[in-house]
Predict the structure.
Amino acid sequence: MTTTVTKGFSTKLLTIGALAAGLALGACGEPAGEGPKAAEAAKHPLIGQPAPAFEFESLNGQGKVSIEKWKGKVVYVDFWATWCEPCKKSFPKIQELFTKYKGQVEVVGISEDDENTGIKEFGEQFSAKFPLGWDKGKDIAGKWQPKSMPASFVVDKQGVVRFVHLGYHDGEEAEIEKEIKSLL
């Protein structure tokens, strides 16, 4: 038995297949406040808990960085990597946040790259003026538990984690800014 498929039918089948694949891949970049990543962030075990301590030497000339010395200020902690495309989109927005709230909010970027190669240059490429560090042995990440890249944490003046963001999408900075303002 032989089945003949017309050219029009084959084209429709390919189009439907391409649309289905696009929808499946598109689910990775979900809007803020929706989908599995937002639900996972809302249940992050650090929310409501004291921010885990960390200390490292800044890679971009800002000296020793320690969350302990920032008690009394709101702190925005961003875990990222040089290979992470959403991180590249979020970095300019983080710099804008740092500039706008300088003196009221401390911002720190912690690289989860396997090697300390290109981290400082990545910061320079995006004109990052906030401290950048490298989590060499993944000890900091082990305590903070970033579940995706980027992962950001908003810490209140008492040193308690109040908000967590997993991943990045355009416009997310408005939500983060609202959270920060609520803690000032």
User: Anything to note?
Assistant: The helical segments are 7-26, 35-42, 85-100, 119-125, 139-144, 172-183. The two ends are 74 Å apart (CA to CA). The first strand starts at residue 55 and ends at 57.
